[in-house]
Design goal:
Length: 379
């Protein structure tokens, strides 16, 4: 068992840290306040290779392992969780799904520009009545011979307004249940594809989250991913990798908040000495550090299993549920360490606390992760 990172992995980590500190930090509060999408920074992320990190170089990607991806994502999330989730969705849900299950033609047409950062993607599974219950798809894709007609609404779609390509999960044959679901590639600008209002969110405010509506949207069967009825399997398989990404995002939020709390504790004085010298604060910092390290190695284990081609569903679920709950706890403690200063925007930790909450919800709630884990250990 080797806990050392390779030189290549350390170089990726350093590059992501450098980018985040130089390009994301200076306007993170402003973008959060005004829900401003980081358009310039996302373009730079594409140019630096952060939007297609695990994609085969033949399709414009970096060909990196999942550990490298996790390292980069953590560094981005330490500074700006909004930028991290934009990156996570494009890598984990869109690029990975297309590379794993797409046809050669689909990879050439869609995967290449997505991996190069020339285009951005979104993943459309959730609906007004189908969140955790992903089998209850109301969006339909009616078979019309050489194409489908898609009707329905998807909501809570990260990158929904800024994406060029949407991977849409829809029901073709309700009588077949989850075996009647398909995954379709739909380009922005397709007739009948409408981007709804932008959500005004508590956290990750500079990522754009929209509802997407489809009204008799014609989609060629060439844009179906996999065989007829493969959509549910595609969605679940893709989400396993997505959960590693969200776990890494949660880890970054927690790490960033902890580092700020640690530094503040060495500067702030109370009762004649730095608060880091008070045992009450020391115990908080010790618990924060320990929980973060435990979350980190759960994530590394899931990433390792993914890279080894093993079944990593259970590991991804454990990493996601634990890291997300650690993020929520650590950021709350970071605010507490900062006292009144933690409650104002200038010190960043209040934003991190707001950002942390969503990691317990999207790409499978904590309750769903526990269900996945329970089914795995009881089978």
């Amino acid at each position: 068992m080797n806990f050392d990172l390779s030189e290549e992995q350390l170089a990726v980590q350093e590059a992501a840290r450098d980018f985040a500190e130089k390009e994301l930090l200076h306007d993170a509060i402003e973008r959060d306040t005004h829900s401003k999408f980081p358009e310039k920074q996302v373009k730079m992320m594409g140019e630096l290779g952060f939007l297609g990190m695990m994609v085969d170089p033949a399709y414009g990607g970096g060909g990196m392992d999942t550990i490298s991806y996790v390292l980069a994502l953590e560094e981005i999330a330490k500074i700006d969780a909004s930028a991290a989730v934009i990156m996570s969705v494009n890598n984990s849900l869109v690029c990975w799904g297309l590379e794993k299950y797409g046809t050669q033609a689909q990879k050439e047409k869609y995967l290449k520009p997505l991996a190069l950062g020339e285009k951005l993607g979104c993943f459309c599974l959730s609906e007004p009545e189908a969140g955790s219950d992903a089998t209850s798809q109301k969006t339909t894709a009616i078979d019309k011979g050489d194409h489908y007609l898609v009707n329905g609404t998807k909501n809570w779609i990260t990158n929904g307004g800024s994406s060029d390509i949407a991977l849409v999960i829809a029901q073709t044959d309700a009588d077949k249940g989850h075996r009647g679901i398909n995954a379709l590639i739909i380009e922005k600008g397709t007739e009948g594809f409408v981007v709804g209002k932008k959500e005004d969110k508590m956290g990750i405010r500079s990522s754009d989250t929209h509802s997407l509506m489809f009204s008799d949207t014609k989609v060629s069967k060439e844009n179906r991913i996999g065989d007829d009825g493969h959509g549910f399997k595609f969605a679940m398989g893709t989400l396993d990798g997505g959960r590693i990404g969200i776990a890494a995002q949660a880890l970054g939020i927690a790490s960033g908040a902890y580092e700020r709390a640690l530094q503040y504790s060495k500067e702030r004085k109370a009762f004649g000495k730095e608060i880091s010298r008070h045992q009450a604060i020391q115990f908080k910092l010790a618990d924060m550090h320990t929980k973060i390290e435990a979350a980190r190695f759960l994530i590394y284990k899931a990433a390792f299993e993914k890279d080894q081609g093993r079944n990593y569903s259970e590991s991804a679920a454990m990493a996601k549920v634990y890291a997300s709950e650690v993020a929520m706890w650590v950021t709350t403690q970071a605010v507490q360490v900062h006292g009144g200063y933690g409650y104002v925007k200038e010190y960043h930790v209040e934003r991190m606390m707001r950002d942390a909450k969503i990691t317990e919800i999207y790409e499978g709630t904590s309750e769903i992760q526990r269900l996945v884990i329970a089914r795995s250990i009881l089978k």
